[in-house]
Amino acid sequence: MSSAGSVQPPSPPRAFTSPGGPQPPAMASAFPRCTSVRLPASFAVILLLMSVTAVQSSQGDKEPVYRDCVKLCVRTNCTGARLQGFESSQPQYMALTGWTCRDDCKYQCMWTTVGLYQAEGYRVPQFHGKWPFVRFLCFEEPASALASLLNGLACLFMMLRYRSTVPRQSPMYHTINAFSLVSLNAWFWSTVFHTRDTYLTEKMDYFGATAVILYSIYLCCVRTLGLRRPGVSSMVGVLLILAFTSHVSYLTFVSFDYGYNMAANATIGMVNLLWWLCWCWQNRRTLPYWWKCGLVVLLLHGLALLELLDFPPWLWVFDAHAVWHLSTIPVHFLFYSFLIDDSLYLLNTEKLGVKVE
């Protein structure tokens, strides 16, 4: 599992012990630390109920053999001439993405511990709230990083298609363009976070995802109420900005509570879900494309079930989170197809002077 510029961890003991004798080590929560908050509401609630407290550490990094391995590796490889040798042989892309000697020790010792677990017949443990993944170049979670990138590219492609298809005079044009930019920002930080998990990239991933959910509510409000009552959508927009500011401030300056973060996003996601579905149902006889919006909402919630199927990564690359992100890529095309149809409909009805529903 090593790569160029990697440190070599010292040989650990041939077996490990767990509190309580020779029983299999207790696994961490079945759900790792939240690697994304883009969970649709109803299934996010299920996840929240099954994992109320945040997972700051896991069975793997609690193991004495792992901790001792890391300490000895750092003491042996990360000082003096050994450290200089590591830095001189480390690939530039690893240095640019912030991989340190200590980080490499943790990575190497993680696989040493995984090997011991498997040799003893125990289930693969998690480390620091995450499953072990094979590092590809500088990518910590290569499949999730690729999936996030592809989601971002799909969003970008459809945003450009929307701009080339829908005239700027359409009532929803600027609101949808702003939504696209918020979504692109979220997928950018999701890609960065899955490439390199740090304090900053984790926060930017979570905050970007929350911004998408809140802006989805604003988009829904503008479409369903704001075209006839602009003052209502303006008030809702102000409230959503205040909610986002408060949310980010609390998580940044008070406590980054994973349980609270999940609950907050589940709540606003539920509002978004019910609002869109009610609008779709009310317009099912007048808008021939209503089903696209309804199907998008249902797909996002149905695909979120993949997050419940948490399992050690296939080939140490594909976990449930990566599969979920990969499965959402086609949804962008369907959702923007709805947005294009609806924007053109609104433009035509505005020209005809027809009341918009």
Topology:
Layout: H1 41-50, H2 59-62, H3 64-77, H4 80-89, H5 92-96, H6 101-119, H7 142-165, H8 173-195, H9 199-226, H10 230-254, H11 258-282, H12 290-303, H13 320-327, H14 329-352
Helix pairs in contact: 1-11, 3-6, 7-8, 7-13, 7-14, 8-9, 9-10, 9-11, 11-12, 12-14
Describe the structure.
With 357 residues, the protein is an all-alpha fold. The protein has helices spanning 41-50, 59-62, 64-77, 80-89, 92-96, 101-119, 142-165, 173-195, 199-226, 230-254, 258-282, 290-303, 320-327, 329-352. Residues 12-55 have low confidence and may be disordered.
- The beta-strand count equals 0
Main beta-sheet strand count, sense and barrel state: none
Order of helices and strands: HHHHHHHHHHHHHH
Structural class: mainly alpha
Q: Provide the gyration radius in Å.
A: 24 Å
Uncertain segments of ≥5 residues (pLDDT<50)? 12-55
Give the end-to-end Cα distance, rounded to a whole number of Å: 58 Å
**Shape by Cα distribution:** elongated
Specify the helix fraction band.
55-70%
The total count of helices amounts to 14
Mean pLDDT: 81
The proportion of residues in beta strands is under 5%
